[in-house]
Specification:
464 residues; Rossmann fold; single chain; 4 domains; Helicase, Ruva Protein, domain 3; 19 helices
Length: 464
Amino acid sequence: MTRGRLLVVDDELNVRRSMEMIHEGAGYEVHCVETGEAALDFLAACSEGARPDLVYLDIQMPGIDGLETLARIRERWPGQAVVMVSGHANVEGAVSAMKAGALDFLEKGFSKARLLATTAAALERGELRREVAALRDRVEGAGEILGRSEAIAALREQIARVAPTPARVLITGESGTGKELVARAIHRASLRARAPYLRLNCAAVPEELIESELFGVVRGAYTGAVETREGKFGAANGGTLFLDEIADMSPRTQTKLLRALQEGEIEKVGSHEVEKVDVRVLSATNKKLEDEVAAGRFREDLYYRLAVVPIHLPPLRARKEDIPLLAAHFAARYAEENALAARELDPAVLARLARNDWPGNIRELRNVVERVLIMGPGELPAALGEGRPAPGGGLPRGEAELLAAVAERLLGRPLKEARIGLERALVSAALARHGGNVTRAASDLGLERTNLHKKIKQLGMEAD
């Protein structure tokens, strides 16, 4: 049985033969090519299970060189283990290779023992990387986006469309709706999935420290800067950076962030040295950034840089059909995390959960489910889902009276007909308020723009 499959990429015949003979004598299966183009073609032709466990890649070759080949391998097959080889070894080449994702760097003129030791170590590190990636997928998978509602189906479709692109995404929605879950889902489905994913809550970092958190700091830049430190942009190079609560970023930091997005360049605090970075930025806020721009609190040019693709998360009250599924998921997850026997929630409890409006959204639902599992159904908040409110219940007196009057007028009609009439009236009013602007009308109605278009069609309003 083979100890592993290797691909050797080198334009020197003697090097290829030497590496092939040494490895085959040690029980490895070896395939050799002489150019970067041939290596990419070979990898593309391999099925998932037959791809090499390790690639030895020469830095200096005719055609595309080793570093460019490495970049293309990392882009198409992020988990592929690669060791760079050079007859002109230098610190700069080694650093460039390691930054680009190589596991190791080998100088030509190697001994048999050194070559085999490098191979064994690289295979072990490659396997460790795969195990860590699998564990990360399992952990992050616990935060999958659950739901069978139209709103969640539309959200999954948006994620599937935008994830493979380099586009920046602005995720909006109320607190607790799962904005970071969406950011992680975009990263996992992107070409950067095996590269770093980092998060920074802009509201949780003091204004005087946020620049150093984002861009790094050099030793002595200010009192307390006792060492040079990488910022989030540097640490996320090649990967994804999620900036939560972006609306709370100070104007000064907004300016520096804009430069990083426009030029792909950053400067550590206290340094004038420009560093190139390749980071995909995803951002989120529970505020309306358009209003922040209009009020002069957020840069308009930065807003347009961040919101290349906007994704809005509906509140839980707008997709109540998903509540039983979410509650069951949180119950099963809590039992697994605490080594408890699996336990289903009582149907009466589920019914009360499904009737509630959940101002704290999914986060509040999860907390209540855990409380019930710990203390029992008697710990449900007294007012939680206790019957459906009367028309207008909880609204200001004038609005409540108006809705009660509407309900009185609709009594006697079939429920389906009454509901359609009311939906038509609400959609018409929202469109009229915003001069026919579907995006703004959808925001008022708590719908995605695409869902409002579908609703308009369902209600037969397109001709209106």
